[in-house]
């Protein structure tokens, strides 16, 4: 079985799981009205399931996934999540520069002038603009 | 309304103070539009408190400038980085980004600028001349017709974008499913909250748009980055005139595309709730569909940029048709504008033309001047933005990410919205890697609530009986066109794959 078919099968099973498990638990049933709260989610899920089945049997696409790229995506998203949590917890002006710096280092930037500009000048400039000029509150 | 009032209003727009505010608005709009993460809607929202102290005309003129400038600015990162600054510009990236990869980013940006100004001016002229009759016509589209129009738009978009109809259908359904999170519009019962009360209002639009369009693109590019740092956009030196500018012949060759885009954008802008993103994609789809060589689209065809930019910019003027004549905001920017009107003590609606005719025509004048400012500011600004954006990828992306986090935090009022943005960035990455058309997902998400509302109203009007559709011939034609377009586009895609 090709990678394309495996992912399509996963999508179809996710659709079925949502339709028969998540939807009854997460959407209240209402006994009146021309359409009920579950109408549009049900239509959308059936479209996903049917189109997924069609794609499973007809698609001849070749999806290529690179393991190294996948790990970099996971690491990058982890940096994002941790940075946002730290910014929320300790303050934008302290952790936005750390966030920008870590992103640049992750991308392989080592030139000090670019690191200084993007990690300190810009985040602090944004903080000053938003907090002091626009009078909007940042964490 | 007498002729003297019209002239007085238009003259008001030409006073130095009013012109200065329009110019300032356009400059701010182009700048924030060019920054992925902060679009004109957010810039307008932030700017409203600063317009309290101004008189109505400079205040509205400034916001008009921000909105119009933002539509042009949004095309710049779409063309240079494949990262639309605004959702409206997502379609521009389809042909704009390949032109950048071919070493012609300035040519692509100039086409976007000329097309935007053309579409915008067209819709402003329509607004000025036929505002009231057109709004009445648009209002005659009832919920059944609007629902049918949405189904037609979905069928066209999902059929035209992406590798196959099934992928487009799945992306559409995923977008509609994401839009159902939150309170059901008909019964106000919660759906798919999974214990998170913050989701009562659904996924924040800013989080979804910025996460799936901007952050996912940055994530993918960072993941695929190897070796030495390079500029995010390489604009080759020693370019010929042909490579960096749009000749009159090239512009003239797109005249029918521009006219079609302007007409689609003006019509959709006059229909509340449709929005400029749908206009851009419908214009792109119809241009591709009628082209003799559709295979050139998506590979850097100037007609693709002309189609999308003329359509999305012409929505800006047409948005004012239901806003000024009926007091109905048709989009997020129009909703902010109505707020600005109310802050100034002005009630938009049919009586506005009667009671404040001079102000209305002053606003019309400001809109025309904003187009001229957009052209001048754009010709100067395009070079500036492209110079700013030639910084290394690491600098551009880290700053863009800080702006995305800041923008979403400000727009949603907390870190929850930023985490939702990250979630949609992950969804965007998965969809892109698995070749599901992300833009179709976004459009379905934006139109989802309106789609559900129209479905509910349609079911009520038809009293659950499909045969009652016979009383709505326009809707019947639109449904038939939807079925035909899916069938036809499906066959075309299958034939193309077979020939490949």
From TrEMBL, chain A:
Q: Which residues are listed as membrane-spanning?
A: 6-23, 35-58, 70-91, 112-130
What UniProt keywords apply to this chain's record, in alphabetical order? Membrane, Transmembrane, Transmembrane helix
> Which Pfam families does the entry mention?
TctB (PF07331)
Domain DUF1468 per the UniProt entry, residue ranges: 10-139
Top-level division of the source organism's lineage: Bacteria
Official protein name in the record: DUF1468 domain-containing protein
Q: Which organism is it from?
A: Litoreibacter arenae DSM 19593
TrEMBL record, chain B:
Going by the UniProt record, its keywords in alphabetical order are: Membrane, Transmembrane, Transmembrane helix
Give the domain of life.
Bacteria
Q: Where are the transmembrane segments?
A: 6-29, 41-64, 125-153, 165-183, 203-220, 263-285, 320-343, 359-382, 394-411, 418-447, 467-489
User: Has the keyword Manganese been applied to this entry?
Assistant: no
The record's listing under InterPro entries reads: DUF112_TM
List residues of the DUF112 domain: 19-442
Does the keyword Membrane belong to this entry?
yes
What name does the UniProt record give this protein? Tricarboxylate transport membrane protein TctA
């Amino acid at each position: 079985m090709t990678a394309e078919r495996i992912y399509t099968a996963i999508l179809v099973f996710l659709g079925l799981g949502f339709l028969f498990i998540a939807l009854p638990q997460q959407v209240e049933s209402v006994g009146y009205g021309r359409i009920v709260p579950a109408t549009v989610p049900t239509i959308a899920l059936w479209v996903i399931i049917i189109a997924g089945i069609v794609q499973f049997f007809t698609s001849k696409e070749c999806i290529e996934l690179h393991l190294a790229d996948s790990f970099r995506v996971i690491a990058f998203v982890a940096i994002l999540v941790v940075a946002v949590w730290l910014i929320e917890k300790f303050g934008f002006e302290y952790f936005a520069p750390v966030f920008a710096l870590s992103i640049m280092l992750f991308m392989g930037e080592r030139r000090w002038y670019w690191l200084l500009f993007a990690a300190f000048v810009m985040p602090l400039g944004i903080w000053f603009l938003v907090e002091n000029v626009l009078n909007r509150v940042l964490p | 309304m007498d002729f003297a009032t019209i002239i007085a209003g238009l003259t008001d727009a030409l006073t130095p103070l009013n012109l200065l505010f329009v110019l300032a608005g356009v400059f701010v709009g182009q700048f924030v539009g060019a920054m992925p993460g902060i679009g004109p809607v957010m810039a307008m929202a932030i700017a409203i408190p600063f317009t309290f102290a101004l008189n109505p005309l400079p205040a509205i003129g400034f916001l008009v400038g921000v909105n119009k400038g933002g539509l042009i600015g949004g095309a710049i990162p779409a063309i240079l980085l494949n990262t639309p600054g605004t959702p409206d510009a997502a379609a521009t990236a389809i042909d704009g980004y390949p032109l950048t990869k071919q070493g012609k980013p300035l040519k692509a940006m100039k086409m976007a600028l000329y097309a935007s100004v053309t579409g915008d001016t067209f819709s402003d002229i329509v607004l000025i001349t036929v505002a009231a009759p057109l709004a009445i016509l648009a209002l005659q589209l009832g919920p059944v017709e609007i629902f049918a129009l949405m189904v037609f738009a979905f069928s066209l978009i999902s059929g035209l974008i992406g590798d196959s109809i099934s992928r487009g259908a799945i992306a559409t359904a995923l977008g509609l499913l994401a839009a159902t999170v939150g309170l059901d519009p008909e019964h106000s019962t919660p759906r798919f909250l999974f214990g998170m009360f913050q989701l009562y209002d659904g996924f924040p639009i800013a989080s979804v748009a910025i996460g799936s369009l901007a952050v996912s693109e940055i994530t993918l590019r960072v993941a695929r980055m190897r070796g030495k740092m390079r500029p995010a956009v390489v604009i080759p030196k020693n370019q010929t005139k042909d490579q960096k500018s749009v000749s009159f012949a090239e512009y003239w060759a797109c005249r029918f595309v521009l006219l079609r885009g302007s007409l689609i954008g003006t019509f959709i802008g006059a229909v509340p709730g449709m929005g400029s993103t749908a206009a851009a994609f419908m214009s792109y789809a119809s241009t591709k569909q009628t082209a003799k060589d559709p295979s050139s689209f998506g590979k850097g065809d100037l007609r693709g940029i002309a189609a999308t930019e003329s359509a999305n910019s012409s929505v800006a003027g047409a948005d004012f048709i239901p806003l000024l004549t009926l007091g109905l905001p048709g989009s997020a920017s129009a909703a902010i504008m109505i707020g600005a009107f109310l802050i100034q003590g002005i009630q938009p609606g049919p009586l506005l033309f009667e009671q404040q005719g001079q102000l209305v025509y002053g606003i019309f004048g400001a809109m025309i001047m904003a187009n001229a400012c957009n052209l001048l500011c754009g010709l100067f600004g395009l070079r500036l933005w492209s110079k700013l954006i030639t910084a290394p990828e690491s600098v551009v992306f880290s700053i863009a990410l800080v702006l995305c986090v800041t923008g979403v935090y400000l727009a949603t009022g907390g870190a929850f919205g930023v985490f939702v943005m990250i979630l949609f960035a992950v969804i965007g990455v998965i969809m892109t890697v698995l070749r599901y058309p992300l833009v179709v997902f976004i459009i379905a998400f934006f139109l989802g609530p309106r789609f559900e509302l129209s479905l509910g109203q349609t079911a009520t009007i038809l009293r659950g009986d499909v045969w009652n559709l016979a009383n709505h011939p326009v809707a019947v034609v639109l449904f038939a066109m939807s079925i035909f377009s899916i069938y036809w586009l499906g066959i075309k895609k299958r034939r193309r794959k077979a020939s490949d």
